[in-house]
Fold this sequence. Notes:
heterodimer, A: alpha+beta, five-stranded mixed β-sheet, three-stranded antiparallel β-sheet, 15 helices, B: alpha+beta, two-stranded antiparallel ribbon, 21% strand, globular
Amino acid sequence: MTSTVDTSPAEVPDFPMERAAGRPFDPPPAARAKQEESALTRVRLWDGSTPWLVTRYAEQRALLSDSRVSADIATPGYPSPAPLPKDGGSRISFILMDDPEHNRLRRMVTAPFSMRRVAAMRPAIQQIVDDRIDELLAGPRPVDLVEAFALPVPSLVICELLGVPYSDHDFFQENSKVIVRRAASHEERMAGHAALSGYLERLVGEKEANPADDLLSGLAVRVTAGELTRAEAAQMGVLLLIAGHETTANMIALGTLALLEHPDQLALLRSSDDPKLVASATEELLRYLNITHNGRRRAVVEDIEVGGEVVRAGEGLILANDIANRDTSVFEDPDRLDITRDAHRHVAFGFGVHQCLGQQLARLELQIVYSTLYRRIPTLALAGDLADIPFKHDGSVYGVYELPVTW
Amino acid sequence: MKVTVDEDRCCGAGTCVLLVPEVFDQREDDGVVVLLEAAPAEGFHAAVREAANVCPAAAITVAETA
């Protein structure tokens, strides 16, 4: 057996890396230091493998758009974040597949996430946000903003879009939490998947008999037509349900904390009624916080020359989008949160054909939240010290477990 | 300027529509890009170039003509 590792093992740092104490919004300094040295560097994973960490913006975009790079977890060299079986049993739908299979499945669920369809949801989302703020204001202080607001808002939105009863939210949020917890055991994660898959298979089955006007019903119609199996439809439902609330919930809570820690930026956002500023603030928070801090995972299927290195077939890639979003060649003074900057080139939603399908929905939800919450609760403040906030260092999506606030 | 789109490559992320809704739209049934204006007015050129630049699937091609 030949090794493709050309660096002395002792010099290869472990991945994921740790953030600096007291700098909860900044990516790990060790990764930033690597970015200054080179576009690509070796890191060591939990299983001893040493994939490439791609730290720079340009190389990252190039590789994520390269057809010689595979997103299929079963491709040799794929840097798995945890011991998952590679037999397809845990393939979370099309995000872990390549074209043409990926494209075929993705297109079945693209329409509800188009700009126009998402824009039409604005009044419904505004209503959800307003209702939750009414409840917040009527309830006790201090309150955990995660439980009382950040999680319910995107959950209600994705449930409405998918056609999942929100009354089941305790069940699917518990299981989804296990799946995205970095420290969860293989058994725990598989059990979470099985529970969610079973739930969605039953729901799709019900919608085959009685289709309504929602995304899962659209998939159920395809199952009936023989274009899709019920299990495939359920897997897509699992993916969208998890992606739909975990990510946006963390952007709401962590975004709020970041703004509270940058009062000048919060004041600027609150004092302006310009939708362009709300939009640019949203893009900037997406760039600055970049909650998907484990990188996009890929495997190389043919040798590629990039960033002064040759990445070989069978090697793994970790595309660190949080580090790319702090690349000084693209973003001036990248460690500064500046809601007036034009941050739209960020890669918080990834890049390439797998770029986040729900990004327009996420944008709209965040724009509505960021333009409503601090205006309606102008004295919103952290109840306690930043040092006591439990951050999701161990999650596949970064954020805070709790955010005690008062007003 | 002459704009072309490759429907087969499009992944329906909608970033082009976000940047220049006057030039790009999405098909109702699958979110695939629809080119509204193959020869956009000069005022849109910078935004169209940017839409091509940030298109995650490289589905937009811009030919600069005199």
